[in-house]
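Pasting as-is:
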Amino acid sequence: MHKIARLFVFGCLFVDLGHVSSANGETVGERFDKAIKEIAKQCASRKLEPNEVCGEVAELKPADPLATEEGRFAHSIKIPNPVPKDSGYKPGMTSQEYFDHLCKTEAGEFIYKTVENVEGLYLMRSREQVNDYKLQHLYALEDPYAYSDIENDAPQKLFINPPWWRYKFFETRKAKLASSDRAETHYLRYFGYVQDKSPMNIEETSTLKSHYGYTWRGIERSHDRELGIVGGELIVMDLHSNEVLAVRRGFIRSGDVRNLTGVWWLGGHVCPRYKHANAYTYEFLSKVLKPTSEVSDGGSDATK
C-alpha cells in the first residue's frame, strides 16, 4: 500500500500527525463527525484569501452507489453467495473484533466456473475518481477496499503487457452524446501494449468483442462504516448469459490513523491480503478467465 504522508492538508487546515489522537471510547464514526464539524468551524472562523478553498473534505457527500446506470446494474446482480443481512455484529464489538469476524466469515475468493483461452475482457463499471480528500473521508468512497492508482487511472495496463499480463485486448465503456441528444454507447478497445517495446493501441467501437467482463460494488450494512469498515465485491460475468462466474469479496478497516478524521484508506487494514497492491485484480481475474497463452506484441491483428 502507499506510504502515509507526515502532513495532511484539509483545505485550509494543516494537521501535524504527531499531535493528534482519538478520544477514549469514541467510534470511528463519532471521531469522524467531530472532525468534520471542527474543519467547518475553523474554515468559517477566518477570512479566506481570494479564490481560496477551505475544508474540501468537509464538503464531500457520501457515495451514491446507484447514481449511474453501471452502478445500478452492479447492485442488481444476484450472486450465489450473497452477504447475509445480519452481518454477525454484536453490541460492544470493537472495530478490530468486527473486522476479524467479517474476514473470517465473509471475505474470500469464490470461483464457480473458470474459462480457458480468454483473449480479452470488458470492464463493465469504471472505478471511482479519487483524491486525497476522499481518501480521508469515511463515506465518500463506495469501495475503498479495491482502490489502486493504476486501476483507477489506466486499468488497461493491468491486463495488456506481456509477459506479465497476458490478455490480448481490454475494453471499457465510453459514453458519447449523439447529435440528436440521444445517449449513444461507444466502447474503447485497448491492445498491443508491451512495456518499453510498443505503445498502447486504442480503437473506438460500437460493439464489444469481449465475451466476459467484470464489475464491482460496495457493501453497505449497519455498523460497518461506524466502525471504520467497508466491504467490496468484484463480480466476474458471462456477458451473453449474465451467469456469475466468480466473486471476490474483501474488507478494509481504517479509523486508527493519526490524522484529524482518523481515516486514510490507502493505509487501511485489508482482507483478503494480496501480494501486489496494483495487480491483485489481474491475479484474481486470471484465475477465472485464464488468458490465452498466445499473446500478440502489438498491431491491429490483436483485435481480429
